[in-house]
Design a protein that fits this description.
globular, 10 helices, binds uracil
Length: 257
Amino acid sequence: MRVDLQVRHRYMQAMGIPVWMPKVQSIPLLPEENPSPTLPLSGKGAREIDSFSSPDKGRLGGVSSDFATLSWQDLRTAVQSCTRCALSKTRTQTVFGAGNQQAAWMIIGEAPGAEEDRQGEPFVGKAGQLLNNMLLAIGMPRETVYIANVLKCRPPNNRDPQADEAANCRGYLERQIALVNPSLILVVGRIAAQNLLQTTAPLARLRGQEHRAPLSGTPVVVTYHPAYLLRQPSDKRKAWQDLLFAREVFARHAPTH
Ligand code: URA
């Protein structure tokens, strides 16, 4: 899907990113903003042929855990009844994930916050609104993607996930990745990126590179967490560059028809 530049302009403005638009005719704002006219950003056709290969793809559907064969419904039930760590005692409810289960793009965040814990859906608070705008700006409206977190339960006072909590939750996320089988994973924030990619590298080193998700081999691009961008709006421009890079990586790997 090619999103009209005017629409993208509007949402870049909503993200607080200053953009220049010519008055008379619509030309690309930046050289790298000119999307390939045939870029299959979303839609069924985007999923039919998998043009990238990974040695791990197919191995138990890319999942090494107890959950490797679970259906969506069984996985959701397993998450809902999970008591693997102490977060089960403090949560209001689990936050499984939401969106298009056949999505070409999957978005992975860190953990539910207060609002997500209350509503049972990822990214529904202020950071979620900004994430929605970022997705729309890049031509992947929220309803076209699948969104999940590293943790399915809210850590008290929004503290960082602990290693054992992330490890206990890992199989759930791996199974979600295998079930969605996206062509691209966009990870938001250092914590989510370090957990997914099993690295201690700082965000600055993780941005701007194409990574691979362990097990599934899915291409992964890392950007800032929208909650960080709300505190540090001057970095929204760099986040926009990350989104353009994500689209480039997707174009490289996505099916051609
Ligand atoms: N931050 C996250 O990382 N995930 C959410 O679902 C909400 C806020």
